[in-house]
Amino acid sequence: MENWRKHPLVFWAFSLPPSFWLIVFFFVPLTLVWGLSFSEKRGIIETELTFTLDNYLRGLEPIYLEILWKSILLAGGATLICLVVGYPVAFAIAFASERWKPWLLLLVILPFWINILIRTYALIAVFRSRGYVNFAYEDLWTAANWLVGLVGLSLGERFVPLSLLYNNVAVVAGIVYAFFPFMVLPLYANIEKLDRSFMEASLDLGAGHWRTFFSVVFPLTWQGALSGIVIVFIPALGAFFIPDLLGGTDSQMIGNVIERQFKSANDWPFGAALSFLLMYATFFALALRALVAGRRGAGALDA
Q: What is the pLDDT of residues 159-175, one digit of tens each?
């Protein structure tokens, strides 16, 4: 069996199709866009490769750095919410009975069966002025107004709906709704492998639940948390249709700027440069993750 696996024909038969796919549909387009980032616009659709850095320098101007910083804050806030909410959800799934665990995992991955654009549009029906949240709020307001009316008071004659759309809060909510499963799944994978005797020993020795989590559980599952942070934060940083649909004029992210360069502005070199600035930031985040993982691993071996 081992000789069959090491046979050159078998190796090339299994490696050529995925290698061809990666080269043709990933590396070649990526290389073309990378070269485009060093080009100059010569006409409406014409560009010339001049190996200029002007596009990158333009991307470092204050107006774009401000949008990038806002994008980092929105994506970081959404990632933090996913992490805080994801841990209890992952724990609930990991500690569920064998009968319910597959069904709970199905509920987590079920949103993947629906296009993310359709799910974002569904949030508009939930958050709009005459949406489901305001319908529930109006019923609650009506009931509360009736109750205080019994003692001669009033909350007002006119119901004012909550403004839940076209702001930063709606954008963060949309990002959390879209990418939350990417946080739960790596957390669940790490918690599932966790030796529960460590938690039992900590509780038996008098540590509370919070101290057990921060002193025992989190150090043993931090790799899953770090993977979830990277998987959620990177696509959230480049999201453009979520702020486009749920955000207002002050909620635009760097992904919206890139989209406009390739569409309405028709400035492909600058859009390519902005795209690769995000990609360089992605590589930095992945390298930082590998560095942290390497140091933690080395520290565990020394211990």
A: 788 888 899 999 999 99
